[in-house]
């Protein structure tokens, strides 16, 4: 009997403490719940708006490709430029590459501005950023001086860059075209030391080294 009385008193005391805690902190509790609800709604809205944005960008990109197929080059160009300016890490890059591949813009200055737009306002994975640097270097070879080019390709000379062999080959060919054969050899020799290298790149570097030695 005494045990039951003790348990009943304990339950009353426990409920009283909970009620007292609630009464003392109910404003804080309601505020926390309200903040939680607002946060969940905001997160849901953000992801839905991002999904909608991606869908619209995808539709624009497809429309630009259709314009190209129908030889509506000016319409395609304007649409792709707007996609580049959207600063989307996927469609901005794809749009710039499509512009380049289709030669929709041939003015060096305008293309440089579009590249800079991506570098300054978009976040990329390392592989994508390295590819952009490689593509821009291809564009810049006939417009920048040697020191500017070497400074630009530094990230690609990192041992973890998948574009390192390509940029070494590009720079080797660059120096060959300028008849600076000793500098060219330095880049070709680096290529031959890379493990698991594509056969095509290896053969090209080997051929160029042989040609230089026969000069």
Catalogue the unreliable spans: 5-10
What is the number of helices? 9
How much is the radius of gyration in Å? Answer: 31 Å
Strand content: under 5%
Number of β-strand runs:
0
Give the % helix.
over 70%
Gross geometry: elongated
Order of helices and strands: HHHHHHHHH
Please, what is the average pLDDT? 83
The helix-and-strand class reads mainly alpha
Task: Report the major sheet.
Answer: none
Distance between the termini: 111 Å
Q: Which keywords apply here?
A:
0% strand; mainly alpha; 215 residues
List the helices and strands and how they pair.
Blueprint: H1 2-69, H2 73-84, H3 91-101, H4 108-121, H5 126-140, H6 146-152, H7 164-177, H8 181-192, H9 199-213
Helix pairs in contact: 1-2, 2-3, 3-4, 4-5, 7-8, 7-9, 8-9
Structural commentary:
- This protein is an all-alpha fold and 215 residues long.
- It is built from nine helices and no strands.
- The protein is elongated and about 95 Å long.
Q: Can you summarize this structure?
A:
The protein has 215 residues and is an all-alpha fold. Helices cover 78% and strands 0% of the residues.
């Amino acid at each position: 009997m005494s045990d039951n009385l003790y348990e009943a008193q304990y339950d009353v005391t426990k409920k009283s403490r909970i009620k007292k805690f609630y009464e003392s902190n109910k404003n804080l509790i309601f505020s926390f719940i309200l903040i939680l609800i607002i946060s969940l709604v905001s997160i849901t809205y953000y992801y839905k708006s991002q999904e909608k944005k991606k869908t619209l960008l995808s539709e624009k990109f497809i429309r630009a490709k259709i314009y190209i197929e129908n030889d509506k080059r000016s319409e395609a160009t304007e649409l792709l430029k707007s996609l580049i300016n959207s600063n989307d890490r996927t469609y901005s890059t794809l749009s710039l590459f499509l512009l380049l591949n289709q030669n929709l813009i041939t003015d060096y200055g305008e293309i440089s501005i579009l590249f800079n737009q991506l570098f300054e306002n978009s976040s990329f994975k390392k592989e994508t950023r390295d590819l952009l640097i490689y593509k821009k270097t291809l564009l810049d070879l006939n417009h920048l001086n040697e020191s500017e080019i070497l400074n630009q390709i530094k990230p690609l000379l990192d041992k973890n860059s998948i574009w390192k062999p390509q940029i070494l080959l590009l720079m080797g060919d660059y120096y060959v075209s300028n008849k600076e054969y000793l500098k060219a050899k330095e880049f070709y020799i680096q290529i031959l030391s890379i493990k698991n290298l594509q056969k095509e790149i290896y053969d090209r570097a080997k051929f160029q080294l042989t040609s230089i030695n026969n000069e």
